[in-house]
From TrEMBL:
Protein source organism: Microvirga aerophila
Protein name: Uncharacterized protein
Length: 224
């Protein structure tokens, strides 16, 4: 289905050994419900792939608008982590978080697989390249086994505010090379992995400097 709202938050990270089970319990039973209780948060999804070595977890939060992700309610939660959060957050590593304005969103239903494509753009061609990528979403949506294609334009100023939750994590990746992200939903993990070469080839357009991809299965979804 199309994303709910005009913005989304994408979070990639890894986990230290021994944290996986506790992370799953915490994220399912406390963390995601807490986030969905903040005004403007409309849907949350957790994706996993324990067979990759970089960014084995991806979380997607769909928001009413961009200000959702720097609202007083959200910042209050980031600056008041729960006791359970203070135990789990130190096991979260290689953390990358970005807020995005929805540039395109096409689809029906929710796929069981997802591939993320983090896109670095040539600065002087940013707007023109985003227009090209927006049109490409139509072609990507028509690929076999694809059920959704969503493009976001990064707004790093939204997530650059230092918070207490940031201090709990061991490492946080720089966001200055995160210009856009393409989310491609498929019917399963194998299909998400198989479409990566096709989509990567389609993304080789003028103005795209680099593309980093990863594929996941849907582990949990929560909405209102």
């Amino acid at each position: 289905m199309s994303l709910s709202g005009r913005a989304f938050l994408g979070i990639w990270h890894d986990l230290n050994d021994g944290y996986e089970h506790e992370f799953d319990r915490w994220h399912t039973n406390e963390h995601m419900p807490e986030r969905l209780g903040i005004p403007g948060f409309r849907r949350g999804r957790r994706y996993m792939n324990r067979n990759i070595t970089n960014h084995l977890c991806f979380t997607l939060y769909e928001g009413a608008h961009l200000e959702t992700f720097r609202s007083p309610g959200y910042l209050a939660r980031l600056n008041a982590p729960t006791t359970w959060s203070t135990r789990v957050q130190p096991g979260i590593t290689n953390f990358l978080r970005g807020a995005f304005e929805v540039a395109a969103s096409l689809g029906e239903g929710v796929g069981g697989g997802l591939s993320t494509f983090r896109i670095e753009l040539e600065p002087e061609m940013r707007l023109a390249t985003l227009r090209t990528l927006r049109h490409l979403c139509l072609d990507i949506k028509e690929l076999d086994t694809v059920v959704g294609s969503h493009l976001g334009s990064a707004r790093p100023e939204v997530t650059g505010i230092r918070t207490q939750e940031m201090e709990l994590r061991q490492s946080t990746s720089a966001e200055n090379s995160l210009d856009a992200v393409l989310l491609v939903e498929t019917i399963g993990l194998a299909e998400a992995q198989s479409i990566v070469p096709k989509v990567t080839a389609l993304l080789q357009v003028d103005g795209v400097r680099n593309v980093a991809s990863a594929s996941y299965y849907l582990a949990y979804l929560l909405d209102h």
